[in-house]
């Protein structure tokens, strides 16, 4: 079947480029006086973005309610704190300045402020949607870390350390940020570890949507183009992090990798994210690295079930020459090329380096949600096997 039935709408307005923060002025005119300013552990104070944003908020006469300290992989406790800040100050607008963690967190707060139930239970454990009559506080993002695509989607991932669950809920368009400011230069100050984790996150978002189905689908061609651009630019950026051309292409690729477009007409997999999120729930490791550490064992495991697509991936994304080789050989060569690229950019290649030990594996399996859209629905035994392989 080519392209099933779908609805596509993405309401997030993007301001892209070196001057993009100036547009914050005109966006702020649309919202009330009380602004909740969401940010992380302080990087924005060191690189000067905080001062720039504060100046613009003040110039527009806003009352600023600071909500800093959003940790990577935001927790349910922090979510409750953010809801309290929003309620106590009757905030009209939430501005997230940071990476995916700040954007996700801002969205989670935005839908919880006027929700009488416990948001963790409702939105994450029970996977319920936001009630139609719940007023959602509008969110805007100034992005400083590239990878998640959170700036233009409805995803909001929250971690509960007590129950060892890291759950992502992808909400509908009411929850998307109203706008996002994307200035590639704002990402220059990222430590290399975070930068490359973001590169792998982008790659995997595309793979999660690419490795499904056997039909002829425009989305797959779009994804091949995005992957080629990412591979090319990431090789430049690891050597020359302030290469604007490379960093801007990567920023743009990240947004399109997960703003719902390339999922249209696809069933999509998302199993690497489920394995990675289980690792994250137990170790609090950096999101992109949890994905890189489990990817190759996972893809080598499912390759036989989706061989034609893995062959296509090898040829069109990694330029593997097919002559004289079996489909399996071509597909394997493609994964080896991806592995070489992963080593070249320097991402985590096993879960041991993220803090996982043998005795944790059974519990990792318990924390792994099983998805059904890919080439193989994994059994518990297979998940354990993949985690074992990922330890090596
Ligand atoms: O907290 P600060 O001090 O700001 O430091 C952050 C943080 O330590 C730092 N950083 C960000 N921008 C910087 C910077 N340091 C220097 N200069 C800058 N310009 O980078 C660290 C990581 O930031 P974080 O926001 O945690 O990273 P990321 O953007 O990867 O977000 C990760 C979260 O997003 C979720 C992940 O699970 C994780 O919780 N995801 C959200 C998705 C979505 N909404 O669709 C999809 C993804 O698959 C992902 O699951
Ligand atoms: Zn991701």
CATH H-level homologous superfamily name of the largest domain: Dehydroquinate synthase-like - alpha domain
Low-confidence stretches: none
What's the N-to-C terminus distance?
39 Å
Q: Total helix count? A: 15
**Helix/sheet category:** alpha/beta
Integer tally of domains: 2
Q: Strand content of the residues, in percent?
A: 5-15%
CATH class of the largest domain: Mainly Alpha
Largest β sheet strand count, sense and barrel closure = 6 strands, parallel
| Helix content, binned percent | 40-55%
**Annotated CATH architecture of the largest domain:** Up-down Bundle
- Apparent shape: globular
Oligomerization? single chain
Q: What's the helix-strand series?
A: EHEHHEHEHHEEEEHHHHHHHHH
CATH topology of the largest domain: Dehydroquinate synthase-like, alpha domain
Q: Radius of gyration in whole Å, from Cα?
A: 21 Å
Protein name: Alcohol dehydrogenase, iron-dependent
Pfam families: ADH_Fe_C (PF25137), Fe-ADH (PF00465)
GO cellular component, one term: cytosol
EC number: 1.1.1.1
């Amino acid at each position: 079947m080519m392209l099933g039935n779908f609805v596509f709408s993405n309401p997030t307005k993007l301001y892209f480029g070196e001057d993009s923060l100036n547009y914050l002025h005109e966006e702020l005119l649309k919202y009330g006086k009380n602004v909740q300013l969401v940010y992380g552990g302080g990087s924005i104070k060191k690189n000067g973005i905080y001062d720039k944003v504060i100046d613009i908020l003040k110039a527009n006469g806003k009352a600023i309610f600071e909500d800093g300290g959003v940790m990577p992989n935001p927790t349910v406790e922090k979510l409750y704190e953010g809801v309290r800040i929003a309620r106590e100050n009757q905030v009209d607008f939430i501005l997230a300045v940071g990476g995916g963690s700040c954007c996700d967190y801002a969205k989670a707060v935005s839908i919880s402020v006027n929700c009488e139930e416990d948001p963790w239970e409702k939105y994450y454990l029970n996977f319920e949607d936001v009630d139609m009559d719940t007023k959602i506080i509008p969110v805007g993002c100034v992005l400083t870390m590239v990878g998640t695509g959170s700036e233009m989607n409805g995803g909001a991932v929250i971690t509960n350390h007590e129950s060892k669950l890291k759950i992502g809920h992808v909400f509908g368009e009411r929850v998307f940020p109203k706008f996002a400011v994307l200035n590639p230069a704002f990402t220059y100050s990222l430590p290399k570890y975070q930068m490359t984790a973001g590169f792998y996150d982008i790659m995997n978002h595309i793979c999660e949507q690419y490795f499904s189905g056997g039909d002829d689908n425009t989305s797959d061609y779009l994804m091949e183009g995005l992957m080629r651009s990412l591979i090319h630019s990431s090789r430049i950026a690891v050597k020359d992090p302030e290469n604007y051309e490379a960093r801007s292409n990567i920023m743009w690729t990240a947004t399109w990798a997960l703003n719902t477009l390339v999922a249209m007409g696809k069933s999509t997999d998302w199993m690497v994210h489920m394995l990675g999120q289980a690792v994250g729930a137990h170790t609090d490791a950096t999101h992109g690295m949890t994905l890189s550490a489990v990817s190759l064992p996972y893809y080598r495991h499912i390759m036989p079930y989706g061989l034609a697509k893995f062959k296509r991936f090898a040829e069109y994304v990694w330029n593997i020459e097919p002559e004289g080789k079996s489909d399996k050989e071509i597909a394997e060569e493609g994964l080896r090329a991806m592995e070489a690229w992963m080593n070249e950019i320097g991402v985590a290649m096993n879960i041991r380096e993220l803090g996982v030990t043998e005795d944790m594996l059974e519990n990792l399996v318990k924390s792994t949600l099983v998805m059904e859209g890919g080439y193989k629905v994994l059994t518990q035994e297979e998940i354990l096997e993949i985690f074992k392989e990922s330890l090596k």
